[in-house]
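User: My collaborator and I are trying to settle a disagreement about how two of our proteins should look. Neither of us wants to argue from intuition anymore, so we agreed to look at predicted structures for both before our next call. Could you fold the first one, then the second, and keep them clearly separated?

Assistant: That sounds like a sensible way to settle it. I'll keep them separate. The first protein:
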Amino acid sequence: MKETPRAARRVFRLSSIAGLIGVGLLVVAIYLAASHAYVFTDWLRLRNYQPAARVSELAQQTTMTDTSRHLFYLNRPGIEDKATFSQSCARMGEQTIVLGCYKGGQRGIHVLAVEDDRLQGVEQVTAAHEMLHAAYERLNRTERQRVDAMLQDYADHDLTNERIKKALKAYEQSEPGQQYNEMHSMFGTEIDKLPDGLEQYYKRYFSNRRAVVAYANRYQSAFTLRQEAVANYDKQLKTMNATIKANTTDLTVRQKAIEAEAQRLDGLRSNGNIQAYNGGVDGYNTQIDDYNQLLDATQLLIDQYNDIVKVRNGIAAETVDLQQAIDSSSLTKK
C-alpha cells in the first residue's frame, strides 16, 4: 500500500521532465528556425543557378567572400544595357539609379553595363555596392544597431570625402531613413581606410576590400582629373583674359596718344617749324614701336587663349561623354 503512491509520483516526475524537455526542444527548434529562416529559401532559389561569366568575374574581381558571393548570386545579378537597365530599375527612387539598383527582399541586383574603357571599375564598385544593400537588409536588429553606430561615428568624426558627404546629404532629402543603408554601401566600397571596427566587419564580405576601393578611385579619377584640368584652365583663362582686357585698354590709350602726336608733328611741319618737328620724330617712332610690341604680345596672348579654350572645351566634352556613359536617367521613368 505504501509503494503504490511512490510509483505514481515517479511516473509524474518523468512526465514532467519529458514535458520540459519537449518545451525546451520546441524553443530550440523555433530559435534555429528563426536564425536560419533563409537557409531553405536560399537553397531553393540558388538550386541549379549558374552565374553568367561576367557576374562570376565581378564577384572575383571585388574579392567577395563566400558570404557575400552567396548574397550576390541569390539576387541573380544582371549586367544590363541602358534600355534594359532603365526598365529593371524604374521607380526605384535610388540615388545610384544610373549605376545600379537592389530590389528589397533579395529580389534582384541590376548593374548598368559600362563599355567605355575610361570608366573601368564602375561595374565592379556598383556590384559590390548593391550586394552590400542586400547584406545590410539581412542584419538582425542587434547587429544592425551595432553597425549603424559605427557608421554614424565615422561620419561624424572622420569622414573627409566631400563628394560622399554631398551624396549623403542628398539621400537625407530623397530617401529619408535610408542614410545608414547608403553609408553601409558607400563606406564599404569607396573609403580607403576605415576604423578597425568597420574594417573587421567588412571582412565578412570582402577578402580585400581595398581592391574594391581601388576600382572606385580608378573610375572616379576619370572625372576628377578632367574636372581639375578644366578648373585649372578656367583659372588660367581668367588671368589671361584680364591681361588681354588691360592690354586692349592700354592699346586704345596709346593709339589716341600716337594720333595726337601725329597731328602735333603735322602742325609743326606745316608751320615750317622743322627743328621742332625733327625733335619729336624719334619719340613718335618710339611710341609706335612700343604700341606695335604690345599689340603683337596681345595678339599672341589672344591666340594662346583661344588654343587653351579649345583644349579646355575638349576636356569638358569628354567629361560630358563620361557622364552620359553611366547615365540612364533619360530612359528611366520614375
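The second protein, kept apart from the first:
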Amino acid sequence: MSVLRGVLGGLSAVIGFVLVMPLLALALPFWIVAWFTRVLATWREPRHTSWRELLTFDAAIGWKPRPHLNTHHIVTTQDGIFHTITDEEGWPGPRRLEDHDVVVFGDSFAFGYGVDSHRAFFAQARELRIKAIGAPGYNMTQEVLLMRQLAPRLSGKVVVWFIFIGNDLDENLNPYTFDYWRMPFVRETAPGVWEIVTDHISPERLPYTLDGYRDKYRWVRVHTDLHSDSFLSRRAYPACAYLIEQGRNICAAAGARLVILTIPDRFVLRQSGIEDMRSRCADLASFDPDLPDKKIRAACRALGVPFVAGKQSLRLGDYKELDPHWNEQGHRRVAELIEEIYVDAALDVAHAGVGGPLSP
C-alpha cells in the first residue's frame, strides 16, 4: 500500500509539473525582462554616496559640507539619488558668495537637500542671484557663527535667514544631535541673559547613541510643546530672539539687510498633524497652531527685523512624500518668494508698511 501511495504521489507531481509548464513558459519572458530591467537600472545608476559623507568636521561650527563636491548622494532608497555641487568653501552651487545678490542662511532646506543642485531654489530664480550658506542638521546658533565669519562679504546684500520650525528652535538649546558631531548651542546664564557655547566642539563622535532622536513620536512632542505654553517653549523662543538679535547686529554692522523667513514642517500643514498635537497637549488652553510664527514675528518686530511666515505661501504639495524636505515645486515656490522679499527689501517697503510679503 505504501508503495502504491508513493507511485501515485510521484505521478501527481509529474502531472502537476506538466500542467504548470505552460504557465511557467508564459511567465518566463516577463521575469527575464524584469530581471534585465533591474540590472540595467543598476548599471546606469550613477555612483553615489550617503548624505553623511557630504559633510566634514569643522572646529568652529561642528561640521560643514565638503568643498568642490560634484557628486550624487542618496536620501532614501525610495526617494532616489540626487546631484550635489559645492563651491571651493563647501557651500551649495559653483559660484562664490560675492557673485550673488541674496545670501540665504539655513539648514538642509538652504542646502537644497533632496533635489539636484540645478533644481534647488538658489538655481530657480529668474533674475536674481541667490547664494545658499547651510548644511543638513544646522541650528540657528551655527548660522549666527557663519554670519560672523562671512560678515565682511555681506555688504550691500539681502540676507534671508531660514528658520525651520521643525527642529531649529529646540536644537538651539542642545549641544548634540544624532549622527552629527557636537554642535554649538545657546544657554541662559542669568534670567534673560544668553550666550553661545562652543568649547565642547571636537571631532570625536558621541560615545553613545541618542536613541530619543530616532523616536518618531519625539518630533510630535516637540511640535506640541512649541505650539503651547511649556517648559520648552518658555526657553526656546527667548533663545531664538537672542539669536535673531545677534544676526541683526551682524548684518547691520556689515551693511546687509536681514529678513527672517520661517519654514513650516509639513507635519503642521496637515489637519491631522494639528489634531495629533492638540490631543497630546498638556495645556490645551494655550495651544495655538500659529504660535511659532506669532512668537518669532513678535521678536522680529521688537528688533526691527522684517519677517515672512513661510506657512502663508507653502503648501503640503510643495513637500516630498517620503522625506520632509521640499520637492521641485516647493523649491520653485521658495525662489519666487525670495524674489518678492528681495524687491521689498531693496525698496524698503517693510519700514514704510506698504504691501509686499514683509512684516516688520
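Some points you might bring to the call about the second protein. The chain has two domains: 1-44, 49-352. Residues 2-44 form the longest helix (43 residues).
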